[in-house]
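ARCHIVE CARD
CATEGORY: sequence design from structure
SOURCE FIELD: tokenized fold
FIELD CONTENT:
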């Protein structure tokens, strides 16, 4: 079975109220689509909650969720306001 190539994509959210459950569901669908075992859902949720929580200085929080496929692996990166919070990868069969 040949898995079709995955196009890299990223989502950017600004402000409060980023829908963490929606981001978790999206990530789960991406993992399922490419056929890899997802990382710990608790780790992903914690990273998303941290990325989408209020900033230290009371300003706008920016959350980025990125998916990249390369070298037979899916990479997932969660960052906020330009700083990396969490990163993982899983092998694509």
């Amino acid at each position: 079975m040949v898995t079709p190539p995955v196009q890299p994509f990223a989502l950017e959210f600004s402000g409060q109220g980023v829908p963490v459950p929606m981001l978790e569901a999206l990530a789960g669908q991406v993992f399922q689509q490419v056929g890899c075992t997802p990382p710990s859902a608790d780790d992903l949720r914690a990273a998303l909650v941290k990325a989408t929580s209020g900033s230290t200085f009371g300003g706008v929080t920016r959350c980025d969720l990125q998916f990249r496929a390369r070298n037979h692996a899916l990479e997932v990166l969660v960052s906020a306001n330009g700083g990396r919070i969490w990163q993982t990868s899983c092998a694509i069969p």
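CARD ANNOTATION: The CA atoms of residues 42 and 59 lie 27 Å apart. The chain has two helices and four strands.
SHELF: design records, drawer C
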